[in-house]
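Standup notes
- DV: blocked on the single-chain target, sequence here:
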Amino acid sequence: MRLKQVVLTLLSSVLLSCANSQANNARVTPTNGDGIKQIAADAYIYAYPMVVMATAREVMTAVPRAGREKAPLNQIANQRTLPSPDTTRPFAETDILSSLSWIDVSKEPVVISLPDAGKRFVMFSLVSAWGEVFATPGSRTSGNQKKDFVLTGPEWKGTVPTNMQRIIAPTNSVWMVGRAQLKDTADYDRLYRYQDKISVSTLSEFGSKTVKPMSVVFNIDVDNRTPIFDQVESMDARVFFEVFAKELKKNPPAQTDGAMVSRLAALGIFPDKEFNYDALPESVKEGINSGYFAGQDQFAEFQRGTPNMKVVNGWGTPILSGKYGTNYKARALMKKLGFDTTAPQDMSFARALVDGRGERLNGSFKYLLKFPKNQTPPVHGFWSLSLYNTRKFFVPNPLERYSLGSGQHLKTNPDGSIDIYVQAVSPGKTLESNWLPAPAGEDFNLVMRMYWPNQSVLDGTWKIPALEKIPEFKNLSENLY
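- DV (later): unblocked, structure below
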């Protein structure tokens, strides 16, 4: 009898071991014929924004103290000057100063305190770890009066002080991208005073007189030289998915992502577990590696073949920005293009590469942008028109002028219309106030930004006028022969 019990016990152990082995294998085995390679390809596109955001956070917080572009976690980097003419920042903005902060709410809520902005337009986009704007405190949504916001994590349970407004973050990692209007060069000191009063602090520290250390420990091994997107592109499949899995544990997926999250299990990736690439079967590793490159190819093909701009009068506006739901390719593309830090209701963006006849903009020609009377961009905030070369950088010019807009004193015609001259040479001293210098003989881009646009901009009933090429007339003496 005792021997029989021993045999049964051993048999049960073997069966249980086999069952556990089968269960573990099932966790990395696709179902319904969905191959590992395709799952990995789809996972690459799904994970891309989160990996970019994680890489950006590592780079932008790897400093001992707050500076003008980088700051440790839960501290603010205040930009103090407009970008210089030789900046390598693509599509640099010319009429706002930014306040940037990477915020961690995994341990406790964080208070974002915004001072009174007076009549200045301000907006503070809060971007999730998935690269989506989920809230924008500021002029449009909460007004310009002083206000304190409590930013809480997705699973936080607690009581918010009655004099504060709660904002629930969908992820524990949040990027705050603040923008404050700079009206002119005489406005710097006033804007500095506003920036200095912006604060980010944990709820337990808010209101206390605790002095923060002058510097903090940071990771000196972070690559601060290679551009963030290049760092992501150079990752192999293992590193890419390790970064993603680590972030996924701290930043939960949306409820609508259930189907995608279930498929990730075939790769050994779970929101609540460590990702162990080495423990995966060789067949799964091979599928992940081949699927990773397939995902890159599919994403590149999507970029090439998907119109991401709606073009009217030669001006293109993003058509994929906003709430993405399960359109993961659109979300990844907007992250890649850099259109993910503002909601259209806060800032509408339009770009022109061609004139009204569809011909490429080039500094060999002269162009006129005419706004009829009372038909300048309809905004509650302000608007600006900026010029960039084909590399998306500023074009050096004798006026050191890189944009025109509602903040400048533009000359008005007798009929109330406003003409903006886009050309390489001056239109004449009396018209220089309305001149946006272009590069001689070179192609260029124009970008229109409309901060807090009216509904007519958002629904397309108001349209930016087409750029008219100004004809060049020959001299009379040339026409005689």
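- Follow-up: Confidence is low (pLDDT under 50) at residues 1-33, 474-481.
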